[in-house]
Amino acid sequence: MAPRSLSHVMLLLGGAVAVLGSVLFFVWKAYFSDGSGRRRRPWWEAELSPYVGELDPDERQVLVLGLDGAGKSTILHCLSGHGAKERMAPTWGFNSVRLPTESFQMDLLEVGGSQNLRFYWKEFLSQADVLVFVVDSADRLRLPCARQELHMLLAEDPDLPVVVVANKQDKSEALSVAQLQQELDLQAFGQREFFLLPASIPPAGPGSSPPSIHHVWTLLLDLLSQA
């Protein structure tokens, strides 16, 4: 039987990965690598090629991390063109989205931000082309925790492009982008290049994504085209 796509396998695993983060890491490694460091062609390319011709095997991987409640799932939902929702259920394990662009397939994997899953975050970095780290700008009490987790990730891979999304800028208690830059102590990494983007995602109905998400999308396209 042909191997399933990453998103299909994740759906089958379901909530188990909320406890067994190592299983999720195994899936990420197994379905995006052939063991030699090269990325695998998706299983469906061979099966569909007689019907649709040669498919573009070029893929880019985006890893989306951040503390629970930061708004990762909402951002993924908007990036996929579905607009904002009034309520978004917490991610107990993962979310995955595959988005076609003119030049490549963009695969986004969000790993939940609960404490039991953060331990495994760093294991996913080797397969990522870009890291998106989402921060709740209004959650001042947990900013030290977000800073610590981000710094640990940055220390693991000094060359990985990083986009920090300062989410929930529409809230009255939110820190500004400049304040977040200080609170996250990004200057501690010297000349390393960061991208810190503001985001506010009020529920605006299906198919409506705010301009801030368009800016994130445009930046991802630019970074991934260089990967």
TrEMBL record:
Mg(2+) binds at residues 73, 91. The chain crosses the membrane at residues 6-31. Keywords: GTP-binding, Magnesium, Membrane, Metal-binding, Nucleotide-binding, Transmembrane, Transmembrane helix. GTP binds at residues 66-73, 113, 167-170. Pfam families: Arf. Gene3D superfamilies: P-loop containing nucleotide triphosphate hydrolases. The keyword Membrane applies. InterPro entries: ARL10, P-loop_NTPase, Small_GTPase_ARF/SAR. The keyword Amino-acid biosynthesis does not apply. This is ARF like GTPase 10. The lineage of its organism: Eukaryota, Metazoa, Chordata, Craniata, Vertebrata.
